[in-house]
């Protein structure tokens, strides 16, 4: 009969209305500043720079290769390469970013910088409470503000960070083997070198 | 004592006016009542906005506003401050004078309607002999201000919204009038106080409200449908249609002018609820004779609030109609039903006291409703529409 659907609908909404007062599982609202949902691992907001160890300046993985700066679609990264080299986490002398700024007002959270970084130095953060009353300076993060420890990375993206760490150790082990091999060949060569003048002397 | 409580506002008014010289007394009395109406109903509007937002929230399993003040009851204060401090933008090509006048006229016209509503025993501002006619005249003039708003904005969405609004309001105005005429036929008066008095009688403790008669029930349902459409409430909120018309005729309004439209809309809802209460729900009379000691104004306002809650409930339930559905429903279903209802009312009047009129009148209305519903549903005028290219 005409109007039956309306009555059914009214009954449904009345059920919702009454039910919302008695059953807690009906209410899906999380009242944000007081309550929070558990952080989601796959979440990503803006990039940050990972450093090893305890000091952000000496442990920074970034070597200022500027790939991310070139790849960034909205061009929100600004890097100035250092003139000198500093030893990185494994003691190899590397360039470092004298300046590394990310304008989060421009950043679109595309994660391309993370994809292209060969040094696992830039990762996506989950921190989202970044509002500020200074819309220019407050939204331009410098390298100190961007630097976060590897432990923090493990905390926000445990699975991904474990994979990254495994890859890094493997890479470092390979590099170590190479340097050792090079050192050995060097040593052998070095041992051979004195022979040459002797040969030449012949 | 209870007598005093019932008449407390009337006595208060007399007491206050008594301080003035006799020449000024009639004018001062009217002014005082006007001030009370102008303060009371916007206050009720503020209350209703919270009630509506919280009620709709609950219907959708949300919490609703709960930040400003305890349980969010101070939300309207925050909203009011916001709309007062917002920039008032008038489009460059708009007709500034008409653009300004439209919201003002709307609110004035809506307030005029309250003048003839009896809100309690002896509590009516102007006891007009043709009160109902006056009410409808004032209600009809809100259409003008809606069209003024749409026309003066020089915006296609505004104009479309206004056209829709006027088309809708005129169509449902007819239904509204026709369903009220039945009441006038039985009570024999256009005066709203007389209509309430006619309903303020009891048989076996039950009141003689018109809703408890077959024609009254049918009339009330159609009145409620027409009232919903007349006040542009969901499911008939096409003139606003946020999703297709960017808020319709008040697209180009901001700040306090927008708030005035909002106020006007809610005031129209209150006044039409008050009229529905007066015509069909016995106005200020008690629902049972043994409750007669409760002050009359409490009954009027509880009935008013109840009908507002029903409006909110409907809004939380029904989706918006399409323009053709709206028009078809008005002209092809509700209007024929009101015309039939007039016949049935006449039959009720002339069949005299007895059980026969109950049976005949109910049977005719039920049969007509079922038959028209069946035919209408089958023909697609009011039933589900088949979309040729969407199947």
Descriptors:
heterodimer, A: 202 residues, alpha+beta, Alpha-Beta Plaits, three-stranded antiparallel beta sheet, 8 helices, 8 strands, 43% helix, elongated, disordered C terminus, B: 391 residues, mainly alpha, 2 domains, two-stranded antiparallel sheet, 14 helices, 2 strands
How much strand of chain A? 5-15%
Structural class of chain A, please? Answer: alpha+beta
The side-by-side strand order for the widest beta sheet of chain A comes to 6-1-8
Over all CA atoms, what is the radius of gyration of chain B? 22 Å
Explain what this protein looks like in three dimensions.
The complex is a heterodimer of chains A (202) and B (391). By secondary structure, chain A is an alpha+beta fold. Chain A has a domain at 47-181: 2-Layer Sandwich (Alpha-Beta Plaits). In chain A, 43% of the residues lie in helices and 14% in strands. Chain A has a three-stranded mixed β-sheet with strand order 6-1-8. Chain A has a three-stranded antiparallel β-sheet with strand order 2-5-7. Residues 195-202 of chain A have low confidence and may be disordered. Chain B folds into two domains: 16-85; 87-372, no CATH class. In chain B, strands 1-2 form a two-stranded antiparallel ribbon. In chain B, helix 5 runs antiparallel to helix 6 and helix 9 packs antiparallel against helix 11 (255-280). Chain B has helices spanning 2-6, 8-17, 25-59, 75-85, 96-113, 131-152, 156-187, 192-199, 214-230, 242-245, 255-280, 296-317, 323-351, 355-379; strands at residues 202-203, 206-207. With 391 residues, chain B is an all-alpha fold.
